[in-house]
Amino acid sequence: AQSVSQHNHHVILSEAASLELGCNYSYGGTVNLFWYVQYPGQHLQLLLKYFSGDPLVKGIKGFEAEFIKSKFSFNLRKPSVQWSDTAEYFCAVKGGGSYIPTFGRGTSLIVHP
Amino acid sequence: SAVISQKPSRDICQRGTSLTIQCQVDSQVTMMFWYRQQPGQSLTLIATANQGSEATYESGFVIDKFPISRPNLTFSTLTVSNMSPEDSSIYLCSVLESGSRNTEAFFGQGTRLTVV
């Protein structure tokens, strides 16, 4: 069974700081990779996704993620965070021809103005 | 993308009672799922809601505790039966719009359940 690890459970940053959230997964075959964001009081929204092609994926609001197959990683980055980026971030992986993603535990990001 | 409405958005229930959560999608979707999100933990898949037939449950979840209906391609319900405080959680409806595996899941806003 595949698993997803998000190593940072709580991250606190000041505005303009750079962000990198780690995500590693266990499945060795072809994967689809996702980052979802949940702003306070709102539903889960897709931030970005990787299915194939360029391993550097650009998403909404200045976020990007890089798929490194050899490291089984899909880390999320943003060069300069804003207060409005305060949210919960979830990494998710679909593999083995499954329709259903497996989610990581989530990372709570707090950005101080 | 599909717009998903869940009702209720939150509820406080007495132990031993049951709560039915509704999920309505604004378009026909291929697959619908129910997740549970416990405090500080990941999303855990409860079951896949199948149209016109019994839901497919994940390990650790049973139909008697979490009966699910899906009468058509736009609507599903999840019932949390005989509730205990351990059932306090956020319950999420999720859909896949197409039958392709190269597609992302969309989520409702969730139902925050507190059992007292």
Key terms for this structure?
heterodimer; A: 113 residues; mainly beta; six-stranded mixed beta sheet; four-stranded antiparallel beta sheet; 12 strands; globular; B: 116 residues; seven-stranded mixed beta sheet
Please tell me about this protein's structure.
The complex is a heterodimer of chains A (113) and B (116). Chain A is mostly beta strands. Chain A is 0% helix and 50% strand. In chain A, the strands form three sheets. In chain A, strands 2, 5, 6, 10, 11 and 12 form a six-stranded mixed beta sheet that branches. The radius of gyration of chain A is 13 Å and the shape is globular. The termini of chain A are far apart. The mean pLDDT of chain A is 93. By secondary structure, chain B is mainly β. In chain B, strands 2, 4, 5, 6, 9, 10 and 11 form a seven-stranded mixed beta sheet that branches. In chain B, strand 7 and strand 8 (75-80) form a beta hairpin.
Q: Strand-residue fraction of chain A?
A: over 45%
| Mean pLDDT across all amino acids of chain A | 93
Q: Tell how many strands the DSSP assignment of chain B holds.
A: 11
> Greatest contact pair?
A-B, 24 and 20 residues
> Based on the structure, what is the oligomeric state of the protein chains?
heterodimer
- What's the number of extended β-strand segments of chain A? 12
Q: What is the N-to-C succession of helices and strands of chain B?
A: EEEEEEEEEEE
Q: Low-confidence parts of chain A lasting 5 or more residues at pLDDT below 50?
A: none
**N- and C-termini, Cα separation of chain B:** 36 Å
Largest sheet of chain B: 7 strands, mixed
Number of helices of chain A: 0
Task: Determine the number of helices of chain B (DSSP H or I, runs of at least 4 residues).
Answer: 0
Distance between the termini of chain A: 41 Å
What are the secondary-structure elements of chain A, in order, as H or E?
EEEEEEEEEEEE
Proportion in helices of chain A? under 10%
Structural shape of chain A: globular
C-alpha Rg of chain A (nearest Å): 13 Å
* Morphology call of chain B: globular
